[in-house]
Specification:
Blueprint (H helix, E strand, L loop, with lengths): L1 H12 L6 E2 L7 H8 L6 E9 L2 E8 L3 E2 L1 H8 L4 E2 L2 H8 L17 E4 L9 E2 L6 E2 L4 H8 L2 E3 L2 E2 L9
Parallel strand pairs: 2-7, 3-6, 6-9
Antiparallel strand pairs: 1-8, 2-3, 2-5, 4-10
């Protein structure tokens, strides 16, 4: 049903975007990057958090982490990650397939600026083996997301890629 709600969302709002189904799982950032032939940074992971009484989705680069201080400064509360059952109940999507598309009811959606350095990102699409390719700005427009700076880039190990 979750995959179908995402397909219905795109059929109604962006019929040019097609859901990509892979044989292998893309439920984690490394698996998704391998399945779609992109760098892990280009995977747009969606996390479900609660800040005070508000539950929201934050979409950010696959290698970024939520920065508690930035989040608290922006939202006035410390973020609390929700458990898997809560995430499914709120988004209708399984963990590993959570995305800002095809939600059962409106909720605040935020896109972290870590996504803006890519012309195209790959967020999940409602199943552990489903995704879409989309520009960050179009994703934000389609989901009425607000751009925020709440991410923390990974610490460099000093190596050169």
């Amino acid at each position: 049903m979750s995959l179908e709600s995402v397909r219905a969302f795109f059929a109604a709002n962006a019929p040019d975007i097609h859901v990509i189904i892979t044989e292998e799982s893309s439920a984690t950032v490394p698996l998704a990057a391998a399945a779609h032939g992109v760098a892990p940074e280009q995977i747009a992971k969606t996390i479900c958090v609660r800040a005070g009484e508000t539950t929201a989705l934050v979409v950010m680069s696959g290698t970024s982490r939520l920065d508690n201080r930035k989040f608290r400064d922006r939202f006035g509360a410390k973020p609390r990650m929700l458990g898997g059952d809560e995430v499914v109940a709120i988004t209708g999507h399984p963990v590993g397939g959570v995305c800002p598309f095809g939600l059962p009811s409106p909720m605040p959606i935020y896109c972290d600026i870590s996504l803006q350095k890519f012309p195209e990102v790959v967020p999940a699409a409602g199943a552990v083996n489903a995704a879409v390719r989309i520009s960050p700005d179009r994703m934000a427009d389609l989901t009425a997301a607000t751009w925020v700076d709440v991410g923390q880039d990974p610490v460099s190990d000093g190596s050169v890629a």
